[in-house]
Design a protein that fits this description.
Chain lengths: 107, 127
């Protein structure tokens, strides 16, 4: 079973700053990776699929990159509504699974 | 607009059963695989079931295999999760989610990405 490890566990930044979140897979997963955003009390929202494709309606400040085992979600300039928990998820092999999450908090 | 609305959660004793429902609207339900994903209180996300667009294929992780059963009723645009022999560790918010972003014509077996989610329904297993 492939394990996804996200870092850091918590990221403290200010609005307007650039946010960089990492996800590392225990085995190569090509580009079969997605990123989700979850705000308190809400369901997750798909941001990025296949490592670098933005989902419908996702602002351009969100971008994804990487392949193989190392992936990055970048938020170019943080808006107040971007502070949330972010999860990566792979679909490369059985079973699909999520990382443990990175909490992006206001500094 | 895609909408998924879950119901059926509640408090149940260990060993008992519960059935969750998820009513879908805003898209052609029969063209998409569907999933259930759960989240224990204060914890991360865990995928628990998929059903293909045509109901022919159903898969589960080992943690729930034999106890949870996914099904769908296309005439009612409704997804179900039958939960039997419930355990304390099944306590979680259960979300239904659409497989996406492509339908069966491009990915007949499903993509295992979750592009639309319901608001979730809380299941508490406690004596």
């Amino acid at each position: 079973e492939i394990v996804l490890t996200q870092s850091p566990a918590t990221l403290s930044l200010s609005p307007g700053e650039r946010g960089t979140l990492s996800c590392r897979a225990s085995q190569t997963i090509s580009t079969y990776l997605a990123w989700y955003q979850q705000k308190p009390g809400q369901a997750p929202r798909l941001l990025i699929f296949d490592a670098s494709n933005r989902a419908t309606g996702i602002p351009a400040r969100f971008s994804g990159s990487g392949s193989g085992t190392d992936f990055t979600l970048t938020i170019s300039s943080l808006e107040p509504e971007d502070f949330a928990v972010y999860y990566c998820q792979h679909r490369s092999s059985w079973p699909p699974c999520f990382g443990q999450g990175t909490k992006l908090e206001i500094k | 607009q895609v909408q998924l609305v879950e119901s059926g959660g509640g408090v149940v004793q260990p060993g008992r059963s519960l059935r969750l429902s998820c009513v879908a609207s805003g898209f052609t339900f029969s063209n998409y695989a569907m999933h259930w994903v759960r989240q224990a209180p204060g914890k991360g996300l865990e995928w628990v079931a998929i059903i293909s667009y045509d109901e022919r294929h159903k898969y589960y992780p080992d943690s729930v295999k034999g106890r949870l059963t996914i099904s769908r009723d296309t005439s009612r645009n409704t997804l179900y999760l039958q939960m039997d022999s419930l355990r304390v560790e099944d306590t979680a918010v259960y979300y239904c989610a659409r497989d996406g972003p492509w339908d069966y014509s491009r990915h007949p077996q499903g993509t295992y990405y979750f592009d639309w989610w319901g608001q979730g329904t809380l299941v508490t297993v406690s004596s």
